[in-house]
């Protein structure tokens, strides 16, 4: 717990150094008192950021699972989209291999 706080304070101290051009100890002191003045804002912002990250991860996971289920069940719309994506990827990979091989042929 102390190590996490010190790492957090250290980051803020370096930010203060970059903004104000102070040495480390005065910047760390200023960062510490800044955090104390804004402790409620820091806590709320931390919780909001955690919540948004959780919603983003959950949304990404659910969308990926839904697309996979649609592909496995064989919906034609998703098969055609997946086919186009895979065809395009193989086409791009072929071009990449061509240029990759050509770049090493010179040496």
TrEMBL record:
<keyword id="KW-0325">Glycoprotein</keyword>
<keyword id="KW-1133">Transmembrane helix</keyword>
<comment type="function">
    <text>Choline transporter.</text>
</comment>
<keyword id="KW-0472">Membrane</keyword>
<comment type="similarity">
    <text>Belongs to the CTL (choline transporter-like) family.</text>
</comment>
<dbReference type="GO" id="GO:0005886">
    <property type="term" value="C:plasma membrane"/>
</dbReference>
<dbReference type="Pfam" id="PF04515">
    <property type="entry name" value="Choline_transpo"/>
</dbReference>
<dbReference type="GO" id="GO:0022857">
    <property type="term" value="F:transmembrane transporter activity"/>
</dbReference>
<keyword id="KW-0812">Transmembrane</keyword>
<protein>
    <recommendedName>
        <fullName>Choline transporter-like protein</fullName>
    </recommendedName>
</protein>
<dbReference type="InterPro" id="IPR007603">
    <property type="entry name" value="Choline_transptr-like"/>
</dbReference>
